[in-house]
């Protein structure tokens, strides 16, 4: 069997920004027997799940549920609304924004990457005025879509999506707004309808507290209309057949039955806690984490106070320290898993996830593990981050 079975005593502290810890209630529901996905019971269940997920995205529009990771859902969004060679704007916020436009390029989309000039775009949230300015110049309406990441998981920045919608409208531009909220949904407030997103992409393994394996596309009436005429070849990702079959609670292909049991359970937990309470809990834990980082005398990767992420905090390590060595130490010595620096931030920072099934003491454990590991790396923190976070939380 897996070496994982031979785990050290006590719990594993999974503090990467996804996959996030899966609550035991959810794990238990996933272990229910698999049933016939074409049988009578499944249709009822499917309808309940489809209705529930709309509340999570705050939408009255259909939400596609794919057996896929978030990357599959990225691809699904693009292939349903774009044509080959279409020009698409991607706002750079970090590694996930980059991976998404790399995927778009492979599909033959004409990618234009934008960001605020004179700023390190990996440290500042989306500046909607940059998008507005670019769209105003596009008098021929060549740009077909604007793609932004709501919560950039590589840097720990949450951007204002409503501001992006307003920028597109102010420029009187017909481009679609495609939003990656893979790590935002369920942890940071997101309002698909009210914020005017045309497609919102998400995944199961972050704020929704599920294992990886489900990807989502929340749609808008405009996106559905555009999808009827678009030309990129697609089959598995095509919305039309799924939309049709979802009307009765079924899918054209076999859905991830057991993960959907888990989704049903996690949505029930989320509705019991209340979405606003969940978002407030995330904000509070994130703030506690930032107090710790400041006390250690370390920098937050995010330099933009308006974009501090409630989901994770990116911690820049001092010059000369290897963030991955610190992570290795935390894992081996304390069974604490921290997120690695992605892309150009490899070795320069680590990420503390405080999303999903996380509370004060799980965060305190993580901070304690980080503080001890910093000490083992020879770093003498300015003050105790653990004490600073405790002071804030008590
Ligand atoms: C995790 C994540 C993805 C990719 O999802 P996978 O499930 O790894 O394919 C995309 N975007 C963001 C912002 C993410 O956090």
Your description of this structure?
With 394 residues, the chain is α/β, with parallel strands linked by helices. It has two domains: 13-21 and 275-393, Aspartate Aminotransferase, domain 1 (Alpha-Beta Complex); 25-271, Aspartate Aminotransferase, domain 2. 41% of the residues lie in helices and 15% in strands. It has 13 helices and 14 strands. It has helices spanning 24-30, 40-57, 70-81, 95-106, 128-137, 161-170, 221-227, 239-246, 257-273, 275-296, 323-334, 360-376, 385-393, and strands at 13-15, 63-67, 87-91, 110-114, 143-149, 151-152, 157-158, 176-180, 199-203, 214-219, 299-300, 312-316, 336-338, 349-353. The strands form four sheets. It has a seven-stranded mixed sheet with strand order 2-10-9-8-5-3-4, with helices on both faces. It has a three-stranded antiparallel sheet with strand order 11-12-14. Helix 10 packs parallel to helix 12 (360-376). The model has no long low-confidence stretch (mean pLDDT 97). Pyridoxal-5'-phosphate is lined by residues 18, 69-71, 96, 149, 153, 180, 182-183, 203, 212.
């Amino acid at each position: 069997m897996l070496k994982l079975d031979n785990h050290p005593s006590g719990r594993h502290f999974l503090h990467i920004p996804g996959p996030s810890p899966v609550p035991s209630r959810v794990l238990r529901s996933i272990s229910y027997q698999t049933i016939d996905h074409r049988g009578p019971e499944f249709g009822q269940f499917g309808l309940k799940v489809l209705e529930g997920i709309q509340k999570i995205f705050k939408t009255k529009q259909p939400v596609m549920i794919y057996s896929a990771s978030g990357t599959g859902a990225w691809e699904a969004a693009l292939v349903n609304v774009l044509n080959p060679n279409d020009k698409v704007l991607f706002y750079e916020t970090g590694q996930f924004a980059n991976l998404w436009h790399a995927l778009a390029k492979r599909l033959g989309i004409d990618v234009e990457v934008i960001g605020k000039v004179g700023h390190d775009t990996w440290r500042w949230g989306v500046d909607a005025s940059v998008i507005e300015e670019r769209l105003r110049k596009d008098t021929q309406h060549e740009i077909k879509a604007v793609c932004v990441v709501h919560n950039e998981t590589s840097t720990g920045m949450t951007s204002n999506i409503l501001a992006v919608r307003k920028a597109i409208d102010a420029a009187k531009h017909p481009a679609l707004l495609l939003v990656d909220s893979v790590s935002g949904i369920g942890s940071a407030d997101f309002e698909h309808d009210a914020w005017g997103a045309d497609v919102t992409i998400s995944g199961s393994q972050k704020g929704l507290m599920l294992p990886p394996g489900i990807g989502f596309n929340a749609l808008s009436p405009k996106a559905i209309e555009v999808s009827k005429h678009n030309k990129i070849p697609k089959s598995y990702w095509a919305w039309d057949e799924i939309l049709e079959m979802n009307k009765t609670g079924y899918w054209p292909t076999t859905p991830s039955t057991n993960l959907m049991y888990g989704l049903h359970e996690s949505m029930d937990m989320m509705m019991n806690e209340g979405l606003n309470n969940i978002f407030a809990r995330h904000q509070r834990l994130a703030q506690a984490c930032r107090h710790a980082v400041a006390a250690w005398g370390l920098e937050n990767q995010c330099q933009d106070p308006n974009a501090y992420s409630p989901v994770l905090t990116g911690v820049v390590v001092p010059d000369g320290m290897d963030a991955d060595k610190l992570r290795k130490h935390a894992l081996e010595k304390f069974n604490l898993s921290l997120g690695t620096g992605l892309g150009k931030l490899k070795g320069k920072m680590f990420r503390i996830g405080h999303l999903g099934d996380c509370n004060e003491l799980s965060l305190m454990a993580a901070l304690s593990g980080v503080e001890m590991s910093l000490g083992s790396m020879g770093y003498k923190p300015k003050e105790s981050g653990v004490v600073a976070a405790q002071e804030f939380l008590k």
